Amino acid sequence: MDTNIATNIAWAGDLPNAQQLVRVSIRLLIAMAAGATIGAQREATGKSAGFRTHVLVALGSAIFVLAGFEYGFGNDPMSRIIQGLITGMGFIGGGAILKLAQDRQIKGLTTAGSIWATAAVGVAAGLGQLAVVLVATVLTWVVLAVFAKWEKKLKPAKAVREETE
Predict the structure, then answer these.
(1) CA separation for the pair 46, 59 (Å, rounded)
(2) Hey, is 103 helix, strand or coil?
(3) What's the angle, vertex CA 26, arms to CA 25 and CA 28, rounded to 5?
């Protein structure tokens, strides 16, 4: 009788070796950390898609990419996975956008953008592109936190300009 558990339980798939488990764990934890960084900024400003949403978007994106990578998909199938994620995040982001007819305003565009950027960071983490994850996370946070302050300073000038046009 064969005592190799992986042979006896064919439906279990490939059991990971230590190196694979560490690689996958690090990439998923990095995706979660990046999503948490972006999500914490959104949570602190009281946005509807906050901390947990952004962590899950980054984690989920990394899982899809890692699953294909670990299965051995080549460039063509991997590009389809990434294209599907980009499209799917567009739909999720679209759900975050609200048009307020009475105010003639559209709200949620930045939240939709942050969800989309977080998914991209998760894809980069899944692919093991850690420099991309780091730089993209920092730049996304800067856009959300620092540019928001600049935008508030620009709004009075924008309102005056619109009134005179």
Answers:
(1) 22
(2) coil
(3) 65
3-state DSSP assignment of residue 46: coil
Strand partners, 100: 105
In degrees, rounded to 5, the angle at the alpha carbon of residue 19 between the alpha carbons of residues 15 and 20 is 50
Could you tell me if residue 134 is inside a domain? yes
Whether 39 maps to a domain, the answer reads: yes
- Residue at 7 is within a domain: no
Q: Which residue range(s) make up the domain with 124?
A: 17-164
Contact 28, 59 (CB under 8 A): yes
**Which tens digit of pLDDT belongs to each residue from 49-86?**
889 999 999 999 999 999 999 888 999 999 999 999 99
In angstroms, rounded to a whole number, what is the distance separating the alpha carbons of residues 40 and 72? 34
Note whether residue 42 is domain-resident.
yes
pLDDT in tens, 113-124: 999 999 999 999
Residue 165 has pLDDT above 80, yes or no: no
Provide the domain count of the chain.
Answer: 1
